[in-house]
Amino acid sequence: RNLKWMMECRSDIDRLNASFLEIYESLIPREEEKVKQKQLLALLEKLVCKEWPEARLYLYGSCANSFGVSKSDIDVCLVISDADLNKSEVLLKLADILQSDNLQNVQALTRARVPIVKLKDPATGISCDICINNVLAVVNTKLLRDYAEIDERLRQLAFIVKHWAKSRGVNETYQGTLSSYAYVLMCIHFLQQRRPAILPCLQEMEATYSVTVDDVECAFFDQVEKLRNFGSYNKETIAQLVWAFFSYWAYGHNYANSVISVRTGSIISKQGKDWTRRVGNDRHLICIEDPFETSHDLGRVVDKFSIRVLRGEFERAAEIMQYDPNPCVTLFEPY
Ligand code: ATP
Ligand code: MG
Fold it and tell me: What is the ipTM of this complex?
């Protein structure tokens, strides 16, 4: 069946578009939330600098990559350059300092995959995770934020997809489904692949920004203000893109052979990356290459059970976009 033709035949496409935009608008954080986040960061900076004057704090994740919905927690990275640093000791010390300054629920999770200190600020009501020297996350946050500056449809699509994933329970890495970071990369890749393309591939362009982090060279074109018209040949609306995104993941993607790669702006082969078989716990049932840590498959958390859940949800979403009279409600119904 010709799905593209069918979607163009939805007579309510304009109404649908308005409803998706409304959902998007309702998810955007208000300005006062950003102000409170800055306040909390300033407080943390003050406390941290007393103990480690050379240290710096950076926001990363959804509070800084422009894909954060309202009332998200904030992710902070403490950068300390000290050759023989013991992360656990620093985290415990940090927890001590924060505890004694009226911050609530301070907890050091030193054994987690990414060790962090968690806390809640009673003044602003914001919860926060602080990790140490996770500079690649700070750099991939910048990459995502720069992509979001190029075409507004990326932010719209990613908000809708994240909202769908949270509503449907498929945004839980500990249950074998995907992280928000993985979903945003799926959206970027998807818009790079539209014809005409809606997003360029920043890592294939002349590098205007370059850093080396943990032996990984991170280089890309970051003068994104020059790319504001890049997607203008493509007139697709958000409703069409949401539909096409889900039908790509439901019916179009080759799960057996393909890896999506934002780094190259294309699909690459599993074979080429040696991601064809299970190695340890990495099963590679859905392959999403990290833009910088290219040996890293963000789909590795997905197992043989959760891949069925995930693909079932993509199919459900594609069907709804095709046939449901009220997709903007049905799509986000709790599972
Ligand atoms: P949410 O709104 O759900 O909190 P988020 O953007 O903060 O979304 P997370 O998936 O919690 O997304 O990830 C936070 C940040 O941590 C990401 O933006 C990314 O910089 C980094 N990150 C997360 N997972 C990975 C990973 N597997 N590899 C590398 N970096 C990652
Ligand atoms: Mg987060």
Answer: 0.95
